[in-house]
């Protein structure tokens, strides 16, 4: 039997999203119904709202969610009704060409539920952001997208593991493979960049250099573990990084903005044979001009990190444990807790650079 809930819907590119009533149908085979308890407001949701991802409107926004499994579809034995879960926007299919060779983090056929959420006012199918849709009190996802985590990790903190924190930490641990004692530069110190800094700290990096043009973000970076900060609006970050590292550059650089200028700087901030990892999502029109001989001469790697190359079933519980042990500072990531109707104001604050993460909370 279908239930009625509320959700934040984006219907027209660039226009403000609205709180609407939605109709949620029961989960089908291999799917689960989840009651959302908390959802982070991520920059990717803003990209969806602005039409910078694709044009499959209307969207049910949100993709960082934690909550309780309320119902399961046919054939589902894990998770179970009542389980406390964090939602993953990728769930390995086990059958594609990558899964068959054990590279589940690159799954080319990630599992999603069939369309189950509809706008009540017009009956239109809602396209859930990243196949999840968490700016709502109920959502339906593939069972493998709902990953059980310890209940001791509260929903406000746990939901952030579902995307931003996992992406940043995973980029260090898995994509780049940051090593103990190494040097790291992080370009862009919002939610993702701050998570990269935490990942570098977890990796026991020796030098962690944060680069941004906003002083409030550089302050946050120091609180998360940056050993040095550079305001790129006041100085050349490449030269400043070289000076900090004895003229060499860093072993690992991370671009968390998604702009050609910052990727160019991140590339040339590296030491010989260093690794640069692109995490920020570029605009479809953006291009990078690269002096090939200089790039060849420096050597090393240019990597792209998708979701931190994580395995949610393994990594979500792990990050939850790190939070509970005090090694992962998810409390500091939450700069505001808001109600569902405050989502547009949270987008505005995000664009002004005032928040790391606003988190929507839902009454029980």
Summarize the structure.
The protein is an alpha/beta fold and about 375 residues long. It contains eleven helices and 18 strands. Strands 3, 5, 6, 9, 10, 17 and 18 form a seven-stranded mixed β-sheet that branches.
Features:
six-stranded parallel sheet; Rossmann fold; globular; Quinone Oxidoreductase, Chain A, domain 1; 364 residues; single chain
Question: How would you describe what is shown here?
Answer:
The protein has two domains: 3-148 and 329-361, Medium-chain alcohol dehydrogenases, catalytic domain (Quinone Oxidoreductase, Chain A, domain 1, Alpha-Beta Complex), CATH 3.90.180; 167-306, Rossmann fold (3-Layer(aba) Sandwich). The protein has eleven helices and 18 strands. The protein has helices spanning 43-49, 155-161, 164-176, 191-202, 215-224, 237-244, 260-268, 292-298, 312-325, 330-333, 343-351, and strands spanning 3-10, 18-24, 31-41, 59-60, 64-72, 84-87, 117-119, 127-128, 138-142, 146-148, 183-187, 207-212, 228-231, 250-255, 270-278, 301-304, 334-338, 357-361. The strands form three sheets. Strands 3, 5, 6, 9, 10, 17 and 18 form a seven-stranded mixed beta sheet that branches. The chain has a six-stranded parallel beta sheet with strand order 13-12-11-14-15-16, sandwiched between helices. The model has no long low-confidence stretch (mean pLDDT 96).
């Amino acid at each position: 039997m279908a239930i009625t809930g509320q959700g934040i819907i984006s219907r027209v590119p660039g226009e403000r999203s609205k709180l609407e009533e939605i109709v949620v149908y029961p989960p089908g085979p291999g799917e689960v119904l989840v009651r959302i308890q908390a959802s982070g407001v991520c920059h990717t949701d803003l990209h969806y709202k602005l039409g910078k991802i694709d044009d499959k409107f209307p969207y049910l926004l949100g993709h960082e969610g934690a909550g309780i499994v309320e119902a399961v579809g046919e054939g589902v034995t894990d998770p179970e009704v009542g389980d406390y879960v964090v939602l993953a926007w990728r769930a390995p299919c086990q059958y594609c060409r990558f899964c068959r060779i054990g590279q589940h983090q690159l799954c080319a056929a990630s599992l999603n539920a069939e369309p189950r959420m509809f706008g009540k006012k017009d009956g239109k199918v809602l396209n859930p952001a990243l196949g999840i849709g968490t700016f709502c009190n109920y959502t339906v996802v593939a069972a493998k997208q709902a990953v059980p985590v310890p209940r001791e990790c509260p929903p406000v903190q746990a939901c952030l593991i579902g995307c931003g924190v996992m992406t940043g930490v995973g980029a260090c641990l898995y994509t780049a493979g940051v090593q103990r004692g190494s040097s790291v530069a992080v370009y862009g110190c919002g939610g993702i960049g701050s998570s990269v800094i935490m990942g570098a700290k977890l990796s026991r990096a020796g030098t962690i250099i944060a680069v941004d043009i906003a002083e409030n973000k550089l302050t946050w970076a120091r609180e998360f573990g940056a050993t040095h900060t550079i305001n790129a609006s006041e100085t050349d970050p490449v030269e400043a990084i070289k000076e900090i590292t004895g003229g060499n550059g860093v072993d690992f650089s991370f671009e968390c903005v998604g702009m050609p200028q910052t990727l160019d700087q991140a590339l040339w901030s590296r030491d010989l044979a260093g690794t640069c990892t692109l995490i920020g999502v570029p605009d479809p029109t953006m291009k990078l001009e690269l002096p090939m001989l200089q790039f060849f001469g420096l050597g090393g790697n240019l990597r792209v990190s998708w979701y931190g190359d994580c395995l949610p079933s393994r990594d979500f519980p792990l990050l939850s444990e790190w939070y509970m042990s005090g090694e992962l500072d998810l409390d500091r990531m939450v700069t505001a807790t808001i109600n569902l109707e405050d989502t547009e104001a949270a987008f505005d604050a995000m664009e002004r650079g005032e928040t790391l993460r606003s988190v929507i909370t839902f009454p029980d």
